[in-house]
Write a structure and sequence with these properties.
Layout (H helix, E strand, L loop, with lengths): L2 H81 L1
């Protein structure tokens, strides 16, 4: 094997190594981006959960208020029937 052939083989090996390193770097950047996206989605999910819990609370409160009003209406109707 001549010196030139050895140099060509080494160049080829270095080229493969460079391509591998570049692809690893792209992969790491992609992973970093995915991690950021996941963190953002988790934060959005937590915010939506808080909103949902508030809405459920409002709904339960409104339902309770509605039942109280219905009870008062029934009581008023009974009074009217007794007095009338």
């Amino acid at each position: 094997m001549t010196f030139e052939e050895m140099q060509e083989i080494i160049r080829g090996m270095l080229s493969v190594q460079r391509e591998l390193q570049e692809s690893q770097l792209k992969f790491q950047e992609s992973q970093s981006s995915i991690k950021e996206d996941i963190a953002s989605l988790i934060e959005q999910s937590k915010q939506q959960e808080k909103i949902l819990n508030r809405l459920i609370g409002y709904s339960l409160t409104a339902e309770s208020d509605k039942l109280d009003l219905e009870e008062k209406m029934v009581a008023l109707e009974r009074r009217n029937k007794k007095s009338g």
